[in-house]
Amino acid sequence: MTALTDVPLNVLDLAWRGFGQTNADAVAGSIALAQHAEPLGYGRYWFAEHHGMPGIASSSPAILIGAVAAATQTMRVGSGGVMLPNHAPLVVAEQFGTLRALYGDRIDLGIGRAPGTDGVTAFALRRTQEGLDASAFPRELMDLIGFFHGMSPNNPMAQLLAVPGLGDAPEIWLLGSSGFSAELAGTLGLPFAFAHHFSGDNTERALEIYRDSFREGGFLEAPHSMIAVTVITDASADVVRREMLPGAISFIRMRQGQKPSPVSIDEALAYSFSPLEEEFIAHRNARQAVGTPDQVRAQLESLLASTGVDELMVQPAGATLENRKRSLEIVRSLQG
């Protein structure tokens, strides 16, 4: 069983844009958070790809990865993930091959199957329906891997050369929030990261599928897994609620089909939650790491015990950069 005291810690960043902030503020905050995380001992710093969300500025992980890699020294930097349906595999290979050429063996390429946005935006990104269907994902994933490691001669893409790309392979992870990606990661012998931070009900089952389907001879000799967990913490329970509520309201509105602008702390504190909304927030937070340090310790230890993952990725989601920094400090201090 993985223990909190010695599990490798990593960070997932969405480049949050808070109320009253510009996109420049958001990305500057991400660089500052990464520079704060590195001396604390966090090993990986990943950016999630989202589009068309006013409160999230991480639409271009490759660009943010380059900025953070240039502003840090040793920490691995990567995507959590690049949503492959939005991109031609050759473009992704060239981008991450270039990052690998620039920053050496510090680059991770986490790959996701969902578009990370609505269908209209996904079509605008790809400009074609080809590749947007989930059934195309395994083939496009193999094309992407082939651009880095060499294509099968039977692949129609074998005549193409990714430069940079071939010979400049990042560390590749498969991301998922379902059994489909878990099984595919296992079959290919890839490391697998589960998006527990937004899909916490099926985590253990997906990891079981991953381990059961794992085949040696791919990239790994044994399964290697990680989960991402939302973290908002402070010594004061009142501060935790204050930092948590703006994001909770935004998430409720997204579930209602909106694309909400950032919510201020004052608006959040004055908001009248319905009993159903309060129940929704409580259910969502129950298996995350939201609370005082002692509560967060218990939540993380429980998750590590039930999942047995090899690494832990925390997604600091407080409303302020100060709290996101403090949350990273507290989680790291829980390791003793």
Tell me what the structure shows.
- This protein is α/β, with parallel strands linked by helices and 336 residues long.
- It has a single domain (9-333), classed as TIM Barrel.
- Helices cover 45% and strands 15% of the residues.
- The protein contains 12 helices and 9 strands.
- It has helices spanning 23-40, 61-71, 89-103, 119-126, 137-149, 179-188, 203-213, 237-255, 265-270, 275-286, 293-307, 321-333; strands at residues 9-13, 44-47, 76-83, 107-112, 171-176, 192-194, 225-233, 289-291, 311-316.
- Strands 1-2-3-4-5-6-7-9 form an 8-stranded parallel β-barrel, surrounded by 8 helices.
- Strand 1 (9-13), helix 1 and strand 2 (44-47) form a beta-alpha-beta unit.
- Helix 2 (61-71) runs parallel beside helix 3 (89-103) and helix 3 (89-103) runs parallel beside helix 5.
- It starts with 8 loop residues before the first strand and ends with a helix.
- One of its GO terms (cellular component) is cytosol.
What is the average of the pLDDT values?
Answer: 93
Looking at the structure, what is the overall shape?
Answer: globular
What is the CATH level 1 assignment? Alpha Beta
CATH superfamily: Luciferase-like domain
**Pairing-aware structural class of the strands and helices?**
alpha/beta
